[in-house]
């Protein structure tokens, strides 16, 4: 009977504990065992790594064996010592520009020495435990750096694709490109086009046969196909040339200007470290998104930096290229089902075997095919997804400056320009504050958009002095920060203006609350100088009661709101101050309720009174029936950004929809559905589940056929079909925005939403409206911890949702 290894296992010892049915006898050593998933993953990664390693070595101008050495060392050394068990290391495309520049300036043996020194620098950084700090670099800089490197690679390899030789820089390559086009090699171009076509079309093969064929890596098929065709046609092309390992050049003492060597070491260290650390984080996300992944141990980034440093020291010493985490191979490793670091190490062993035994086959590969393969990798490094992301966050200027700097000047210079631009953008945002003044119906409005710092104080003073004495003023602060200089200026002006007969109201437009001094409690005088009461809550409307910090520090902990305050509800204080703890808790709950009602009466009611009066006159006309769980953390109006009259909300334990005719003794849900569809004529019904649902946990904990002797147990029987759907091995596994559920509870929460949608379709009113086309059904999953709403899609195409991610879920 075979046993599967947990997806979170990261050590070979863990794997050993998962497999043997009995413990080994005392005194006997455990045999090294490899899971079948690790073995198949190692083969898949090896088939990708072999042509890519040769192609990257060709791109840098290094000996082709150097790519194989780096691949083997990255797999064995970094795989064994690194902190990310599933990340595969080796020669990376992101390092080609740096390495090619060092080789061009100082030669190959000095480049190997630079690799060793970069590895030592990484070991030092790992010992200092600064790995997490590297993740603080702006993603726009990292993506811009990779995009610049990708453009550099693609432009250089275009010359080899056309049958020529690349120049030393992007401008030189661009200038030489017209002449190269006029003197292209048809045979080299044909092999390159064939390679690119296979790379593009192989992942898109249709049908069941295509699904099986796609398991073979596209890179291997492309290079092998071009090699076979070139050999069969007898084409005369430059081929891979692997000299004897006896003449392989090892590292030598560094020779050259000290400052230049230091810059080369810094650039190599920077690119290797950042790419490896970001890759480790990405691999964690990929591993946790696999179906049935369970608990996945996160990468130890400091250990990963130490492992990468050791690999670079060994690779440089043995005459290999610099080593870093490689996204393509790591993704293939995870998707192939690897469960431990054994897959990474085995792939390195396979590279060693190929380098020693497959030299005659490797020397048949056309260089043009390898160049096309690497050019495709470079083009993919310019990610449209990254460009859209940085544009959405208004960092496209940082991205563009970094990319152009890398293309025109070099990696280190481009990153420095990107950092400078990022700092400039941050300062610009800090100082870009718009202050306007206008009068409306006798009330003066001063609107501050942006961060209110000392730099904006002169403009703020000019706007405030436009307000005449004794006028009513509203100062709206539309920003998230106000420093002490701006606060003092605003408070001094407010005091002066109110003493001269004017009124001042200072509000935060986005939060809908008054602004207090930075760092202080949100408590202050009422407009006009009156002091607030204990019931004067300045927190956001959705702030939880237990997180309120609105009481005066001097207020007695058990003081109740005064009963003569307009709009408040009076309660009698407890007679016995030494009452029991439960009584004190009940009193505190009463005060929380009173405080909330008081705040509504004085702050919210004046704003919504007109809308509620209209709804009272016209009656309710909701557009949606929103059926969700009774969980206190699910706030429907906040999730949907809806207001009074928008939603007809039905809540119950587990957001269950009993099917028609179910023996429940409770028709409340069916009655609500019938009323919403037939009377209110809602246009859509939404079933909303959520993470951490206690009802779903109770369903999982209950065994099949468990007696339901309590009202809760009898109600949860309606969740039985969801549990059966979960345990159905033939049913599709819900996927949440590209990842699988993190555990069985989340999977059941998602499955339950789908099952309740099916129950909805069985109701007569719903079925009739769906047939008429007057009703739509939607499923929503709300992740409480992420504050993220996911819209469940039924394999629909072309739908775009603002700030909502789709769930790929076959219904």
From TrEMBL:
Membrane topology: Multi-pass membrane protein
Locations listed in the record: Membrane
InterPro entries linked: Carbonic_anhydrase, Carbonic_anhydrase_sf, SLC26A/SulP_dom, SLC26A/SulP_fam, STAS_dom_sf
Superkingdom: Bacteria
Membrane-spanning residues: 39-58, 106-128, 140-162, 187-205, 217-240, 260-283, 344-361, 367-384, 396-427
UniProt xrefs under SMART domains: Pro_CA (SM00947)
Stretches the record annotates as Disordered: 1-29, 550-593
Domain SLC26A/SulP transporter, chain residue ranges per copy: 37-401
Gene3D superfamilies given in the database record: Carbonic anhydrase, STAS domain
Keywords: Membrane, Transmembrane, Transmembrane helix
One Pfam entry name: Pro_CA
UniProt record similarity statement: Belongs to the beta-class carbonic anhydrase family.
Described purpose of this protein according to its UniProt entry: Catalyzes the reversible hydration of carbon dioxide to form bicarbonate.
Alphabetized PANTHER family for the sequence: SULFATE TRANSPORTER
The protein's name: SulP family inorganic anion transporter
């Amino acid at each position: 009977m075979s046993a599967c290894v947990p997806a979170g296992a990261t050590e070979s010892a863990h794997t050993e504990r998962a497999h043997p049915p009995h413990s080994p006898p005392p005194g006997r050593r455990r045999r090294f065992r490899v899971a079948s998933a690790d073995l198949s993953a190692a083969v898949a990664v090896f088939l990708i790594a072999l042509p890519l390693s040769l192609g990257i070595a060709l791109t840098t101008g290094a000996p082709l064996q150097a790519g194989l050495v780096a691949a083997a060392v990255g797999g064995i050394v970094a795989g064994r010592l690194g902190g990310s068990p599933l990340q595969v290391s080796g020669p990376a495309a992101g390092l080609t520009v740096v390495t090619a520049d060092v080789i061009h300036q100082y030669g190959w043996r000095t480049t190997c020495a630079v690799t060793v020194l970069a590895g030592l620098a990484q070991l030092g950084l790992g010992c200092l435990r600064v790995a997490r700090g590297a993740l603080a670099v702006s993603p726009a800089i990292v993506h811009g750096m990779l995009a610049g490197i990708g453009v550099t690679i693609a432009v250089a390899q275009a010359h080899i694709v056309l049958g020529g030789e690349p120049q030393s820089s992007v401008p030189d390559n661009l200038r030489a490109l017209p002449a190269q086009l006029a003197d292209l090699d048809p045979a080299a171009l044909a092999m390159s086009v064939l390679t690119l076509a296979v790379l593009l079309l192989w992942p898109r093969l249709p049908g069941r046969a295509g699904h099986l064929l796609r398991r073979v890596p596209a890179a291997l098929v492309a290079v092998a196909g071009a090699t076979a065709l070139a050999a069969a046609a007898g084409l005369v092309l430059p081929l891979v040339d692997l000299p004897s390992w006896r003449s392989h050049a090892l590292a030598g003492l560094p020779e050259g200007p000290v400052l230049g060597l230091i810059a080369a070491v810094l650039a190599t260290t920077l690119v290797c470290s950042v790419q490896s650390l970001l890759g480790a984080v990405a691999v964690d996300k990929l591993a946790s998104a696999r179906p049935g992944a369970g608990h996945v141990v996160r990468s130890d980034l400091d250990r990963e930096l130490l492992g990468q440093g050791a690999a670079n020291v060994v690779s440089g010493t043995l005459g290999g290229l610099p080593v870093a985490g490689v996204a393509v191979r790591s993704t293939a490793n995870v998707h192939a089902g690897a469960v431990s670091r054994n897959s990474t190490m085995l792939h390195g062993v396979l590279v060693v075997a190929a380098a020693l035994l497959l030299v005659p086959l490797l020397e048949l590969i056309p260089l043009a095919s390898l160049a096309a393969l690497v050019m495709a990798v470079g083009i993919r490094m310019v990610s449209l997804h990254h460009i859209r992301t940085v544009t959405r966050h208004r960092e496209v200027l940082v991205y563009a400056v970094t990319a152009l700097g890398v293309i025109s000047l070099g990696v280190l210079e481009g990153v420095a320009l990107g950092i400078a631009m990022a700092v400039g953008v941050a300062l610009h945002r800090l100082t870009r504050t718009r202050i306007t003044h206008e009068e409306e119906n006798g009330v003066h409005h001063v609107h501050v958009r942006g961060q209110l710092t000392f730099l904006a104080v002169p403009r703020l003073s000019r706007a405030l002095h436009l307000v005449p004495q004794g006028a009513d003023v509203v100062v709206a602060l539309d920003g998230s920060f106000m420093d002490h200089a701006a606060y003092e200026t605003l408070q001094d002006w407010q005091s002066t203006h109110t003493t001269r007969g004017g009124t001042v109201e200072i509000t935060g437009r986005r939060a809908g609350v008054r602004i207090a001094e930075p760092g202080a409690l949100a408590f202050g005088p009422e407009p006009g100088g009156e002091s607030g009461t204990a019931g004067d809550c300045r927190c956001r409307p959705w702030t939880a009661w237990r997180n309120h910090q609105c009481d005066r520090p001097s207020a007695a902990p058990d003081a109740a709101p005064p009963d003569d305050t307009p709009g408040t509800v009076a309660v009698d204080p407890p007679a016995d101050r030494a009452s029991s703890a439960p009584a004190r808790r009940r009193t505190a709950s009463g005060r929380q309720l009173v405080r909330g009602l008081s705040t509504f009466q004085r702050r919210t009611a004046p704003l919504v009174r007109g809308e509620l009066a209209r709804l009272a006159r016209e009656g309710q006309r909701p557009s949606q029936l929103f059926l969700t769980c009774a969980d206190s953390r699910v706030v429907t109006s906040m999730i949907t950004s809806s207001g009074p009259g928008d939603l007809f909300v039905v809540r119950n334990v587990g957001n269950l929809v009993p099917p028609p005719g179910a023996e429940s003794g409770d028709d409340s849900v069916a009655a609500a559905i019938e009323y919403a569809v037939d009377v209110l004529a809602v246009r859509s019904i939404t079933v909303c589940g959520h993470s951490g649902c206690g009802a779903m946990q109770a369903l999982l904990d209950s065994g099949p056929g468990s007696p339901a002797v309590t009202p809760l147990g009898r109600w949860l029987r309606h969740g039985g079909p969801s549990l059966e759907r979960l345990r159905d091995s033939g049913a599709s596994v819900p996927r949440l925005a590209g990842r699988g559920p993190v555990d069985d509870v989340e999977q059941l929460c998602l499955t339950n939403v789908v099952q309740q949608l099916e129950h909805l379709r069985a109701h007569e009113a719903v079925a009739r409206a769906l047939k008429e086309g007057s009703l739509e059904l939607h499923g929503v999953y709300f992740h409480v911890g992420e504050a993220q709403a996911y819209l469940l899609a039924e394999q629909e195409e072309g739908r775009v949702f603002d700030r909502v991610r789709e769930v790929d879920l076959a219904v």
